[in-house]
Amino acid sequence: MPARQVLLLSSSKVHGYEYLEYAKDDINNLFKKNNVSTILFVPYALKDYDGYLRQVEEVFAKWGYKVNGIHKGNPVEAAEKAEAFFVGGGNTFQLLKELYDNKVLQVIRKRVLNDGIPYLGSSAGTNVATKSIHTTNDMPIVYPPSFEAIALVPFNINPHYQDPDPDSTHKGETREERILQFQEVSGAGPVLGLREGCTLLIEGDKITLKGLHKSRLFIPGKEPQEFDVGADLSFLLNV
What we know:
alpha/beta; Rossmann fold; globular; dipeptidase activity; dipeptidase; protease; serine protease
């Protein structure tokens, strides 16, 4: 069985970089080693599918790839024939609902886990690649039939993870407090907080933290841990 090949970005836009630029090398490594020439883009997280597609096409054309929008034809047929997937950011609830409504969630899961088709996700596209979308930061603007997601990995991620500002007078709950509250619920597992510019590479049963910054890991019953870029996080597949 081909090994899964998944690259999950905390975000597509990072200060000081153009769209997707900070992860350019990792993205190209993922696609080039698989001889990908055409990427199937899933724009469901935003309302303007065509405008979103144009933005993505412009970037990937510079890198030598053609991009097709899953919304341009039969979504299931497009997913079944895709050489690679890119699921973009936006609203996670909207994205997951459209994946269910268009009947492509299980197709994408099968293509990635069984056929080894590369999957690139950013922000909301990273959220839906995990066990569930319970740890998204987005507003629930629509109601998907389930919070269970594609489950390319058996844990949760919090993209755009932010640390508390020690100089702030804001007294609301921090991102860490929100995650810890989620983990008070029975059955809640690990949550990896991906700061802006962090990426996670999953190759078969190996997980490597990549990108620009450390990430913070929350495991129920344990103190949160910091992991440096380059860290091996493969143990998360078995926690």
